[in-house]
Design brief:
alpha/beta; Aldehyde Dehydrogenase, Chain A, domain 1; Aldehyde Dehydrogenase, Chain A, domain 2; 2 domains; 7-stranded mixed beta sheet; 5-stranded parallel beta sheet; 22 strands; about 40% helix; binds NADP nicotinamide-adenine-dinucleotide phosphate
Amino acid sequence: MTDTIRFDAHIGGSWTGSSALIDVREPSDWDNVIARVPALTADVVRDGLATARKGARLWADTNALTRGQILFKTAAILRDRSAELATLLARENGKTLAEATGEVAKSAEFFEFYGGLARLPYGDLIHDARPNTTTTVRHEPVGVVLAITPWNDPLLTPARKLAPALAAGNAVVLKPASNTPAIALELTRALLDAGLPSEAITTVTGKAGEIADAIIESTEIDAITFTGSTRVGLDLQRKVAGRNVRIQCEMGGKNAAIVLADADLELAAQTVAAAGFGQAGQRCTATSRVLVESSVKDAFIKRLVAIADSMTLGPSLARDTVVGPLISRDQQSEVIGHVARARAEGATVVTGGDTGEGSTLERGCYVVPTVIDCDSADVSIWRDEVFGPVVAVLAVSSLQEAIELANASDYGLSSALFTTNLAATDVFLRDIETGQAAVNLPTSGWDVHHPFGGFKLSGSPYKEQGLEALGFYTRTKTCAVRSV
Ligand code: NAP
């Protein structure tokens, strides 16, 4: 057991506690409550939103260069506090210390990238047929942005949303996942320490079932950016329909990798293992399906299984851990349930598929890296998002068949092809229906300046990251002035 840290939420421009609390448990050792955060009520949250509106005015009036400097300072604070933040993140989420350290660094990069972009031109001079008329287009902040974020990258996802939203001059209301609120509150602290006006950031903690509707229904919210499950994302879209609130949703995935017979099989196996089992498979861009040309399927599975079996499963802070636990007992049961269903439907579990042995693993929410050989695409493990360290493999006879099967999914987030054939690369990049497509590279690992977002039920028309993100966080005003 360890000491439990008590955190406050940030609402109405100040840190605010509550007598009702949410326990934050450690996935590596489920009996440990590492933090407690306020379980805010709908009324408290509703009252706090008027401050966010004030914050939006104040921040929009702040010079863009100053806004950029505050974002740079936030990045510097994240880097200075990296060791402490990475430890909290690893303990709260279960990812390894190396993964958590990488997440802190990448979160800082979001603030650096958008800190620089705050200086971008924010409009254009355009032609006008009328005499003596000067016409301009201005991109202005939309106002108050609500960011709802999941537990799997609990620092990175808020950073991906808050950095462009704040660079563009919006105030933000952040609602982090209830499993991982502490690191989001540390990000809030970093922003305030960097000089962000306290009214410009509201971070509310509480179960979505209690507080989400109060925020979503508030007229103080001008835009909603959501990352999480497809079920909740679609539900949010239905809830705001008819109100003309702009909404961006990044949702589930079932990412496929295609391995052709001419591929470097060792590269393919290493890359699929890293993208499939890294972060215990809890990345939206994790590889969870592999379509392998039949002549190399056995050789590929042999390599993948050897890598999976060599990955040390253990607590997030242990030095030799390569794969950490899942986020919770519920998630662990759900993943084990997916594997049991696959077995019952006739698929072969080649390795893994259980929670591991020994007292250390029993205390946490572990699932052993798992490889499943599917004889047919007609098994639920092939279709359903698992969100755990489970990779399903299926033999195909051609690239065309592989692309058809990869596209036969409700999701369209990310994909990869392994080949040494340029023509195959060209066909794949043209025909694959995913928002991200990689060749001889993992389905995961996209950089802060790469536009990011899914097709079909994985995403919505607005992309995140890169220059494209700014489109969601700004509205366009066309202005004409006749001088005489
Ligand atoms: P989730 O259950 O949808 O929760 C995500 C967030 O939404 C949490 O903050 C949650 O709060 C909140 N929420 C839950 N119900 C809500 C409601 N009715 N109204 C408003 N907000 C609500 O997803 P998750 O289990 O945390 O995350 C895993 C999912 O995220 C996976 O499907 C994964 O693929 C997806 N994901 C997608 C991307 C992407 O970029 N496409 C990236 C990462 C993750 P509480 O925690 O309080 O319930």
